[in-house]
Amino acid sequence: MPVPLPARTESPRARRRGELCVRLMAAAEELLDDGVTLADLGVDRLTQQAGVSRSSFYVYFEDRADLMRLWFSSVVDEIVEATRGWWAVGPAPDRGAVRDALGAIVTVYRLHARLMAATFDAATHDADLRRLTDVLISESVDGLRRHIIRGQKAGWVDPGLHPESCATHLTWMAERTFNQLLPGAPPRAVTQLTETYTYIVWGVLYRRVD
Amino acid sequence: MPVPLPARTESPRARRRGELCVRLMAAAEELLDDGVTLADLGVDRLTQQAGVSRSSFYVYFEDRADLMRLWFSSVVDEIVEATRGWWAVGPAPDRGAVRDALGAIVTVYRLHARLMAATFDAATHDADLRRLTDVLISESVDGLRRHIIRGQKAGWVDPGLHPESCATHLTWMAERTFNQLLPGAPPRAVTQLTETYTYIVWGVLYRRVD
DNA sequence: GTCCGCTCGGACACCTCGTCCGGACGTTCT
DNA sequence: AGAACGTCCGGACGAGGTGTCCGAGCGGAC
């Protein structure tokens, strides 16, 4: 008697979809590194680069945006997880701790910088993809907002700043600078970005007024 | 004997091109206000909204990006001009003066918010348009960078911050928050944006360390 | 050996883009 | 008045990419 629910860990269909997602996005990254524009990155060229037929692509994905949605979903948790270190910056915030926390976010983001930038670009034209990027942004804003409010109640963040608005500004700044500056950036530039990011966040949120 | 250079103020051809640009971009703004996506804003629908035939469109413009380039070029000077007030914030910077200067930038930007956001989106796919947006960004970064250096030499800006990197971060923050938050924002939200923008810039650049 | 699932290439209709052309209209010059 | 000119329009066209569909081939499982 065979297993009633044969290997319910994952549908072979879904597994194959996942495998192809990895392969195709890796191919996309190669092409983007070679200077191919996202607009010129059609399904044809993409599948060709990955060594998969175009018809097979449409077996597993609705369209190019569907592929990017799947990839993005798997990465967004990674990013969100990396931001948790920031919220842990507790009472009596230390500048070194803040830099380490922000540096960890930058490091994680950098791993996917080129594809993240491409995803945010593609989100302009695909409503579903746009919803996913919005989730990442709003979760970041929300986490930072609560962090700010906690700090204000505890007295180590200026009570005069507007938590929601300030969190929004800092989040958009991070998103934009990451996507604009990180793809293909040399280590030196990454360090500089982290430093300035820290400088601004520190100056806006934690610096003692005295 | 007729005029050798008949009314050399402006070619009638170029004038007509300018008129159509205004009409078409106004039509584009209407459609975007009605919730039409930039991706769905084809030449067909655009010209139909403006009451111009599609064939006439191609007489005066290479493609949709060409239209947007012409419009953007005419508006970028306006924006750059508005930022000059910021650089004028002189020795012994006053918080009220900073808010007024940044508020002026927000006010000007707001006039074109929806179309500016659309232009930055379209710049993703059109290299020439991208170059134009990059000019706006890099001019802003450059102006701010020089402003920072001037302040550092005069002693009213922290010499410890990196002028280029910091200017880049603040500029991208402004671009992103403007394009994301200003389109269709009620006056209350605009005020809040200006306040937070001022709060951050003040805290990062001018606040006395004491 | 036969069935089943997967992959592939190719063909197809569809859409948008950018080009091109002939006809219609109004103005200007003779 | 009539001719010449510029402008606009609708329509037709090919090119290129998208998403769908089908039949052929191939390997593993029964």
TrEMBL record, chains A, B:
Alphabetical list of InterPro entries matching this protein: EthR_C, Homeodomain-like_sf, HTH-type_TetR-like_transc_reg, HTH_TetR, Tet_transcr_reg_TetR-rel_C_sf
Keywords, sorted A to Z: DNA-binding, Transcription, Transcription regulation
Highest rank taxon of the organism: Bacteria
Domain HTH tetR-type, first and last residues per copy: 18-79
DNA-binding stretch(es), residue numbering of this chain: 42-61
Protein name: TetR/AcrR family transcriptional regulator
Lineage of source species: Bacteria, Bacillati, Actinomycetota, Thermoleophilia, Solirubrobacterales
